[in-house]
Amino acid sequence: MAKVHVDTWRETYRGLMSDDVLDDPGLLEFREKFWTAALTDSRYEQNSVAVASHEDTVIGIAMSGPIPDSAEESQQLYVLYAYAAFHGSGVGEALLNAVIDPAAPAFLWVADPNPRAQAFYRKHGFVADGTVNIEDDVRDVRMVRSIQAMTAR
Fold it and tell me: Which intervals hold domain N-acetyltransferase (predicted)?
């Protein structure tokens, strides 16, 4: 899972994120620690995690969970990555639906510009709400899916 996370970051964010971050020799170890905690630490027991595989190889990962320190009912999509070779294959949709009910309200942060990912999320009922965050020199926009938007579809 950590390898998929690092590889897909490098595929997705090259040119959007600093090469120093993407090529950091410690990035894989950092992601291994992240996934170990996400899968074993009781703080994350309400999170949902899914993997997609092809020919016994993990090709995509996803994770959602409650919003920390919030009474809000919606889920946050924290991770959704698949190798570029599998874009358009249905893997992303399967991962999304595995970690967040397709009829449930949710939100996520997506890099901007990232037109392919943004179009994918729009297809699944998410709309940009105008909120922007900049982290690691990457501009992210928040996309939200409300119950009203889902019932209107």
Answer: 1-148
Angle CA 118–137–86, to nearest 5 = 35
pTM score over 0.70:
yes
Q: Are 8 and 81 in contact (CB under 8 A)?
A: yes
> Edge to edge, what strands does the sheet with 57-66 contain?
48-54, 57-66, 75-82, 106-111, 138-145, 127-135
For residues 19 and 128, give the distance between their C-alpha atoms in angstroms, rounded to a whole number.
Answer: 27
Could you give the C-alpha distances from 113 to 12, 92, 125, in angstroms and in order? 11, 19, 19
The answer to whether the beta carbons of residues 112 and 97 sit under 8 Å apart is no
Tell me phi and psi for residue 111, to 5 degrees.
-60, 145
Residue 56 buriedness (CB in 10 A; 0-12 / 13-18 / 19+): exposed
d(CA 44, CA 139): 26
Domains of the chain and CATH, by start: 2-152 (3.40.630.30)
For residues 67 and 48, what is the distance between their CA atoms, to the nearest angstrom?
Answer: 13
List, as own/partner pairs, every contact residues 146-149 make where C-beta atoms lie below 8 angstroms and the sequence separation is at least 24, other chains included. Answer: 146/105, 147/103, 147/104, 147/105, 149/125
CA quadruple 36, 39, 44, 50: dihedral sign: positive
